């Protein structure tokens, strides 16, 4: 696995691996007919937007690391009652 692929698969760096995997699995299942997977694409897009906003806010507040770790993200999601996206 090359460096960029490892980085994208790292759950501490990429908070949306689950949504990404689901969209790829949908594409595989429907023979790459993108119209059948729009719900999965939207879920991934919402995930990226949500965590990007969190990252920007943490950067503004001077919190390091800017992206919460996987354990911190689970706690944050539990506090709001599950995935808000």
UniProtKB/TrEMBL annotation:
Q: Which GO terms describe its biological process?
A: mitochondrial respiratory chain complex assembly
Highest taxon in the source lineage: Eukaryota
Q: Keywords assigned by UniProt?
A: Disulfide bond, Mitochondrion
The keyword Mitochondrion is annotated on this UniProt entry? yes
Question: What is the protein named?
Answer: Coiled-coil-helix-coiled-coil-helix domain-containing protein 7
One of the Pfam families matching this protein, by short name: COX6B
Query: Per the record, GO CC terms?
Result: mitochondrial intermembrane space; mitochondrion
Organism this protein belongs to? Oryzias latipes
Family classification: Belongs to the CHCHD7 family.
* Cell compartments where the protein resides: Mitochondrion intermembrane space
Q: What gene name is listed for this protein?
A: CHCHD7
Q: Which InterPro entries match?
A: COX23, COX6B-like, Cys_alpha_HP_mot_SF
Q: What is its main location?
A: mitochondrion
